[in-house]
Amino acid sequence: MLKSLARGTEMFLTGPETGLMMQPALRINGVSHTFGTRTALDRVSLTVPAGSFTALLGLNGAGKTTLFSLVTRLYDSTSGQIEVFGFDVRREAPAALSRLGIVFQARTLDLDLTVRQSLLYHAALHGIGRRQAGVRAAEVLEKFTLVDRIDDKVRNLSGGQMRRLEIARALIHNPALLLLDEPTVGLDVEARQDLIGEVRRLVAEGRGILWATHLLDEIQMSDRLVVLHKGRVLSEGSVQEVLAQAGSPDLQVAFISLVNASGTKAAGQEAAE
Ligand SMILES: Nc1ncnc2c1ncn2[C@@H]1O[C@H](COP(=O)(O)OP(=O)(O)OP(=O)(O)O)[C@@H](O)[C@H]1O
């Protein structure tokens, strides 16, 4: 499952570093964030175990993107603690950030580059030498069935192919944790199914996945689930545990029940009042 192939003096990794797997891929403890008077996250704690598919389920405005921005240090977290494989994102930023890949909700591709150029450029940003970058690019394109598009301009890809390229690019430095913020937005049913299947296969390689979504049908019974609502974690655990906490075997009913039970002022409401 976790393989490393030694070729001459170079090491090419096809799965994440094995030594990391004792630590959770992501541990968030007591993190809050405000925009002016608006509280976007209120003492959020959650864990993404190494090698797990963890769904972060929340409606619009739940705080999913804000959380991703804090993990990737786009925003600075001033309260609580965020660790990637035990490395604190503030105090040990290079060690933490080099072990995570991110796909943001909004597309961030340069349409004038070719697929190959996109990948090699990002590999260079991560300090990966040209030869190893070529090997990694071939690997990630294979995983996301884009090999035959390698010399096409990004602007000529379909929406689903662009998304797959973004994920391939996020894996170019072989991170053991991948964060995806509502990656299926704008994709048709078939492209959605293909994408989620390809990402689930990354779990089998030992990667931890945090998949933010508001779509219940993207969650499987074998997943870990975190329910985020108006900046607060309402439930966390296996899907079975979340259903048991909510008292319903149906995920939609359980979700609504958790939201209703969260009752009074959730984060973000204060400013609206
Ligand atoms: N830059 C900002 N300035 C002010 N408020 C913001 C900013 N970014 C987010 N917010 C607010 O913070 C809260 C959480 O927003 P966030 O975008 O993190 O939620 P989300 O779960 O990602 O929602 P969506 O699914 O719609 O993307 C919302 O109330 C939002 O209006």
From TrEMBL:
Coiled coil: none annotated. GO terms for molecular function: ATP binding; ATP hydrolysis activity. It comes from the Bacteria. Pfam families: ABC_tran. Keywords: ATP-binding, Nodulation, Nucleotide-binding, Transport. Residues 26-255 form the ABC transporter domain. The keyword Nucleotide-binding applies. NCBIfam families: PQQ_ABC_ATP. Belongs to the ABC transporter superfamily. This is ABC transporter, ATP-binding subunit, PQQ-dependent alcohol dehydrogenase system. It comes from Microvirga lotononidis.
